[in-house]
Amino acid sequence: MGHDVPMEILGQSLAQLQATRTSQKWRSYPADVLPVWVAEMDSRPCPEVAEAVMDAVRRGDTGYTDASSTAQLLAASAEFATRSWDWSPDPGRAVASSDVMGGIRQLITDLTPADSPVVVNPPCYNSFWGLVSRMERQPVAAPLDDSYRLDGESLARAFAEAGPGAAYILCNPQNPTGTLHTADELRMVAELADRHGIVVISDEIHAPLVRPGGTFVPYLSLPEARRGFAVHSASKAFNLAGLRGAIIHPGSEVAADLARTRSHHEVPQQLATIAQTTAYRTDGTWLDQLLSEIDARHTLLAALLTEHLPQVTVTPAEATYLAWLDCSALGVADPFQTFLDRGRVALVTGKGYDPSRPTFCRFNVATSPEVLTEAVLRMARAVELERVA
Question: Do 28 and 54 fall into the same domain?
């Protein structure tokens, strides 16, 4: 049964959040810093998920994850994909993993040569760069075009440089820009990857977080993507970073390759498996309201920036609860540091997503109107203080 969601999911006050949140977002900086940085939401939980987790704890069902529980998670993910995107992956071919980045790392380790590079699309999720560095691989950049869309010439050059057998981590939807890749763009990716012998791994963790009017296209829903992999999770859409897990789906021609590596992947912990399985099987009431609120927050951020920081340009995000801000026109050398030091607002520096964009920042809109408004007002004051210093 579904649950009514009578109050705002993203409606908690600043005082409530400061008093109750102990996660990384709220405890990494001093108490006077307003956090709008890491990709976790200031959300009330989905009632069904909270109930399922609390019920498991009450009955002591907190042991090791059983294969039958993992099978339920894989089935639930496939059901969600069918309902949401009219894509029906085979759960029998899928593999559960501890989390998205862990799953991607294992795929690269198992399916590509140990010294092969990894292709990424800057500006892209900053953890991609960190993963490549930790694996002691060489990153090869295929920058997005000026509209933050996939660029065929850029990809072809990068694939040729990386060489056959290399991996390409596709971010779909794109983080930090919120770009939704089209079917034609993804078809281009698949055809270029086949031509150059590249292993495509599509990180689709933000897939459920699409704004009105947008359409998410699963990479593997295209026949041309038969040799790629897609990694899914309920952790972003249902704010389950502390109960994370991942589902890896293979293309039709590489299912056997994934099956051979199944034992290499650490499965999600028991409570994470319960939480994510339940999330995928909710009736959509909570998620629909969340998406409506995220859309409203994007609109609010754009209005506040127009009023208080008109020099800042925000990329119109088609998906995610992340906003990519071009602060180049502010005339400050390091906007991230200015906002932090003089405004006591923590964003994320653009350098983490693209080393060539030090005057960009990523802003997380998944919070209350109060927090969002206060953040922009502080940012505007910070710029004023920087200019008179």
Answer: no
